[in-house]
Amino acid sequence: MLQDPQEYIGLAIEEQLTREHFYLPSHATLFAFLVECFEKGVEVELVSLIQKLLDRGLLDRVGGPSNLTDLYTYAPSPGHFRHHLQHVKDKFVLRSIIQNANEAIAQAYDAPDEVAALLDTVEAKILAIREGSETNKAPSISSSVNDVITEFQKFLAGERKTPGITTGYPELDRMSGGLKPGEMIVVAARPSMGKTSLMMNIAEHVCIDLAKPSMVFSCEMSAFQLVQRLIFARARFALANLSRGYTPNKGDLQRIQRAAVEVAAAKLFIDDTSGITINELRAKARRKKRDEDIQFIAIDYLQLMKSRTKQAENSREREIAEISAGIKGLAKELGIPIVILAQLNRGPEGRAGKSLGVPRMSDLRESGAIEQDADLVALLYRSAYYADDAEEKAELAGKSELVLAKNRNGETGTVPLTFIADLMRFESAARTNETE
């Protein structure tokens, strides 16, 4: 880099070399200074470099003029640059492994009560070494400002596309800005409201329509049941028809076959481990992110998950809080959105009049930590479920609302939906004056 700064400093930056990769502090300081000069367009040559380092009080930290002169006189072949660069990276990886292994040994000898938590921490650190994330965890404020201004300029230029992953529901995307990286989205409702159907409708849109690798953790339903729902809902064929003696026609069979081919081609990974622990889920999600670069995770549902820590053994509220915090931490760590379903308590049933069945964020079961950790809380509600008579039930059939009770990065309000019970499918509904 000293021999040909314009060529090799830029190449080192492209290869994501950082000052942390250098073992000697003097080399780390010199590299950081060279990068600074390169970014400012300042010419790098021996005399001016010594003067600049002297002016900044850094000359002694890089070994003085004699050390710099020695570095300049050492002239390796430029053709070996990538070989030397990889050598520096490899040694950094080895030092990181040694450091993390020593820390793990020390913690293991301390006989921790939370063995699963220690295993989770060690695994995360080792994976971080592989992904190179340890050297990129703290972007500079100038980098963040540049990102913000770039997005603002796109907005002014009319490039107003949804910043996150779309859900397939335009009104929800407009209000939420889509499912953004690092966000935890909680979809909560009473039993039989269609939480799983809505989750799978969103997962279908992400992994099939958008072709983004996705993962679903299902603590309640088997993989077979979820895939069956996915295929027949996409084919718009009601499975209940078969039990009524209906024989599928040629058009039905073609749609089912087409849907099966599309689902088979999708990168959708389903884990139906019942009672999965938060540590197991995080480990599996990390591996899938590493191996398949998954862009979206859905979990059904929060209250069926477990935490094995000592504190959680004696307090269900504490257990739910740990799971909620773990999911939010995983979303930030992997840089992807996570949709997690949650059960509401019996509060909606206890309300009277027009408020009967209408959910509130305070109805989230067992822990206020869920609403605290979540970036978006959506409450699913179908009024027909609480209808008193058949006529009223028929009138309200299909009418559904997704109430955005909390939206950290956007507006709150109601998203009107239509629920097609035979297909177990939610679709966008026209907004009426009553819901505006």
Detailed description of the structure:
This protein has 436 residues and is of the alpha/beta class. It folds into two domains: 5-113, Orthogonal Bundle (DNAb Helicase, Chain A), CATH 1.10.860; 164-428, Rossmann fold, CATH 3.40.50.300. 49% of the residues lie in helices and 12% in strands. It contains 17 helices and nine strands. It has helices spanning 5-14, 25-40, 46-55, 64-73, 81-109, 115-131, 141-156, 170-176, 195-209, 223-234, 240-243, 250-265, 278-292, 310-313, 316-334, 369-373, 390-396, and strands at residues 184-189, 214-218, 268-271, 296-300, 338-343, 376-381, 399-407, 413-420, 425-428. Strands 3-2-4-5-1-6-7-8-9 form a nine-stranded mixed β-sheet, with helices on both faces. It is elongated. It starts with a helix and ends in an 8-residue tail after the last strand.
Briefly, what is this?
With 436 residues, the chain is an alpha/beta fold. 49% of the residues lie in helices and 12% in strands. The radius of gyration is 28 Å and the shape is elongated.
Features:
436 residues, alpha/beta, DNAb Helicase, Chain A, Rossmann fold, 2 domains, nine-stranded mixed sheet, disordered C terminus
Write the layout of secondary structure elements.
Elements: H1 5-14, H2 25-40, H3 46-55, H4 64-73, H5 81-109, H6 115-131, H7 141-156, H8 170-176, E1 184-189, H9 195-209, E2 214-218, H10 223-234, H11 240-243, H12 250-265, E3 268-271, H13 278-292, E4 296-300, H14 310-313, H15 316-334, E5 338-343, H16 369-373, E6 376-381, H17 390-396, E7 399-407, E8 413-420, E9 425-428
Helix pairs in contact: 5-6, 6-13, 9-10, 10-12, 13-15
